[in-house]
Predict the structure.
Amino acid sequence: MDKQEFLKLIEIDTTTKRLKHRENTELEFKENFNKNDFALYSKTLSAFANNRGGIIIFGVKDRPREATGMTNKNFEDLDNKELAHFLNEHFAPEIQFETFNFSNESKNFGVIQVFETDNKPVVCIKNGGKKQEIQETEIYYRYSGRTQKIKYSELKKILDKNLEIERQKWREHIENIAKIGAKNVKMLDLLRGEIDTGNGKKIVIDKDLLKNINLVTEGKFVEKDGAPTLKLIGKIENGELIAPNLNLGEDFFTTKELLERLELKIHHNHFRGIAAEYPQIQRENKYFQQKKNQKYYSKFCLEFLKKEKLNDDKVKEFCKKHNVWSKK
């Protein structure tokens, strides 16, 4: 999210002097952010994830609805790892989110943006909250301006869609087998890390490689004929795939390392300006991989940014343009 997108969400109606936008299926307002309310926020975030995704904006007062800004610095001090840990401890599958800080007219605002999950439904797996706002086994869903336990009709739609996706995958598998020929097809079991080659022989994938299989999914970085391709890195010895030691420092880069390779001398937090100017590097998987809430950027991202011919002053201008944090 950039500042212009944010400003549209807190735009004022010149007639009523109040916000144009009301809370809806993808938007919620809060006056302040408090760590003690993680359960309450997570309930809404999981509800957004089970629908089409959504945004919580902190710094908006209720009755009347006014963009007053936050009265504390709790959101500025928020460590995303804390919120991610709470979400992972209380919900499954994982809820993907991003946080943003904005200022407007000397007022400070915070934003949590959550994305629609590809693996619905997100379910609460542990009770939590001061008043037990979230309960184990419950599924939350975002309705028009409110979060509540999912109703039968919405849950049925999710389950029906999952079933249709499963059927479609089977159709695609069968079509591909028909094209390739049944004798030429071998199945990769990602759960057990085995490829059955027939005649009782199997190729076994090294468990460390299997655990980090997303790091060698070539479809994330390379497309062959427009279709994702899985590339197994390593050598086969006695029917076993021996994985190399993947080095994130060589194959992927932290923001600091990325800036060094771009020959930029600025503080690594200036990378937020680059991310705001080129949002695709934070959204498209071919540009990054995420491991334990830390993003690592691929060589494709490095090559992309090299073509932009960035320099220190240009990046600092991005920070000013998008009103993101910068260090003098």
User: Anything to note?
Assistant: The mean pLDDT is 82. DSSP finds eleven helices and 19 strands in the chain.
